[in-house]
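Hi R.,

Here are the chain sequences for the assembly we discussed:
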Amino acid sequence: MRITLNGALRRIDAHPLKRLLDVLREDCALTGTKEGCGEGECGACTVLVDGTPVNACLVPVAHVDGARVTTIEGLRGRHPLQHAFVEHGGAQCGICTAGMILAAVALGKQPTLEQMKTGLAGNLCRCTGYSAIYRSIDKATTNRKNRRERKRRRA
Amino acid sequence: MARARKAVGRNVLRKDGVSKVTGAAKYIDDLSFPGMLHARTIRSTIPAGDISAIRFNFDTAGFTIVDHRDIPGRNVVALIEDDQPCLAERAIRHVAEPILLLAHQDRDTLLAADVQIDYRQTTPVYDPAASPTVFKTIAIEKGRVEDGFALADVIVEGEYRTGHQEQLYIEPNGVIAVPGNGVPDDVEGITVYGSMQCPYYVHHALAVLLELPGDKVRVVQTETGGGFGGKEEYPSIIAGHAALLAKKSGRPVKLVYDRVEDMLATTKRHPAIVRHKTGVTRDGKLTAIDVDVLLDGGAYATLSAVVLSRGVIHASGPYRCDHIRIRGRATMTNTPPNGAFRGFGAPQTQFAAEVHMDRIAEQLGLDPVRVRAINALRPGDTTATGQRLGKDCSARQVLREAVRRTDFQKRRRAIESANRRAEALRHDGSAKAGRHDGSAKAGRHESNLRGIGLSLFFHGSGFTGGGEMKLASKASLALTDRGARILVASTEIGQGTRTVLAQIVADTLGLPYDCIDVNAADTACVPDSGPTVASRTCMVVGRILQRCAEEMRRRLGRLTPREYLRRHGSLVITKEYERRGEMLWDDHSYQGDAYGSYGWGCDIVELEVDRDTWQVKPISCLSVHEIGKAIHPMLAIGQIEGGSAQGLGYALLEDVVMRDGRMANASLTNYIIPTTLDTPEMEVVVLENPYTHGPFGAKGVGEMPIDGPAPAVINALRHAGFDLRAIPATPERIMKAVVLPRSTQSTQSKQPNKISANSALSAVFS
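And here is the predicted structure of the full complex:
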């Protein structure tokens, strides 16, 4: 099997029914993706498959053969959401954070509060009560806009 | 030295932020050691009885198998009572009690191993009130409660119940045990890495279990994905198990629970039954408070005695009264042991106190704010234990602020008239069109009932009574080239320990926040600063560190850290907890200064009840908290928002179903915690009324937010017309609840006689 993992083509030699979660964590040594429940309820293992958030604990690796898979490591610490989650309290214990950020990436550029609530309904956080997560996503959008603005002014 | 920008009171970047958002932070399941085995726990399937036979229906070659006979030291989980075996020998007291441990290098082979255990069953006890085994009783007496009742015009009684609650940290419990204590050539010792709140609890338990001197045991906290009390005492058990396997196999052993095992086997919040009998004058003054608290401890004592202690001390609520009697007991049942959970007994007892307070107001025809305002504790008043409160008592301030912000009374009246309209609409709709056709559906939203409720609460910071003296916590500060390194056993579990402690040290030293780093909570290098529990880290450990930093600053004089190190060599300052001279506590009479200080809170919840599904939708939640000083406002607000959400889950969703002593819904599919869609808009207001002996005035904050939401929700449901005395208020419970006649909502029926709450409700209110 071949997947485009975080932008690079990668061959996977694993049992086709092995959970994508285990392939990422064990075969690819990408431990940023977490297991919280193993039954698709908590969303801690959320990764993007061709841009769509999925629970990696429910996906056999054969399903993503030929697909683009993005994990938290794939954002390389440079995504505005990552900055905003640090600055605005979106991450506390951190165990849901990778999944939460990837689910938020899938929300697109300027999600409304309702879109955030619906889009993140599959990602459980026991620390924040979610408000700080909404604020972080909101600020990431604003930061992005400000950066664009600054760039435009400089140009 | 250049003047550094102050860190305290500012939202500096959290120390662990970047590693958490990039996925670089290593949690226990992310670690691996060469030659590591995987482990599994074989548990009892019956609630009470004896083991009669054990059979291995698999080829045991390649397995490491451990039972109680492999324990070199004492077969106990050393904590308070030492009544709980690390591995069952013969007697079984609860479902999921650990009996055997297996380890194998291949996970699939390990999971396929079939062990059959035969039992002789005995009759289990599930009713805590009928249990013959009492773990602890406590009595608090202030004045004479009989005298207080004699002064009363009205006596109000009620019984209130709260259920189990699962901490549900998203990272399950897990550890890795590695032979050797980390010192080269050590073969006798052991190192345990794991997800935990209290490395020194684990350290002590391992030393007792393995009969090793303290220096042979090393415990290292790994990044911890939430605790909420669920990783206070439990890690001592799982660490012991992994350590036994590692000792026997001579190899590193990983033991990480999956979600189902974590929910089945680990501790939960104690269910409680709390009875109130209160004397009150016609104008609303409390004359007597008589409370009986019963906690279901589960099968072993664990922390039940201290959970009960905090529970009873908070049982009369934040109110002044000259005559108080509180009696509490925690008893044994054949269910998995209950233990620490954020709030630690106080959420249960304050739930009862605050739901009861609304019913007192109703009996008197007073509004719920007024009856609280009359009785709320003020500076100079004494609590149930006779503690005289200082200037940092803020019960009335938080109440006033919450009421002002929501315009509570006005909102309450508006909701009442909206509910009358909804009632009319509903009757109209069903008469004209029937309930289930389109027209009724269109009007569904308007026919929902609304309610608004409040709760006033307090929470003692730090260990109860003489607890901090007994702990005698230590903290150290080491001078580094660029600043200082914090050495404490206090753990970062998401709440911000590393960040807040660094802020306190930075400002005390007069150095920038970035110049302070925090050592891992590794017992090989940090002193025992006590457990990370009881809202004590910032206030108690923070204050010890502040004293370290004060001395370090004196020693530095005009030198920079680098200059000092070059001239004088290394500098490590260690300080111990210092008792405030005037603080007194008597453990026998339960009188005295129960806590150094208290935080104060008022929550107001507005909600809506769907008349067809009986589902409750919280619409808004306001929390006003007075916490002394918010060292890091954003983190403090994070604690309050998160704790409030957890409290709303406790109130409405989180229902541990125990069937034959076993949690029947041990999975995230049917044990429901709040998602984004269940959590309302939250507004948090932080007030600061400094505590003289806290660092920069700080009190505790972590636990208090979970005390308020449940009673506010139940009071709001009462306002909507549903009489509930138990949580969680699931749709099933609401459907069965006594529906209060609409006329009672504006409350006008003074009955100056004794009123028995549960039986004669309709008589009282008609």
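Chain B has 21 helices and 31 strands. Residues 408-433 of chain B form the longest helix (26 residues).

Let me know if anything looks off.

Best,
T.
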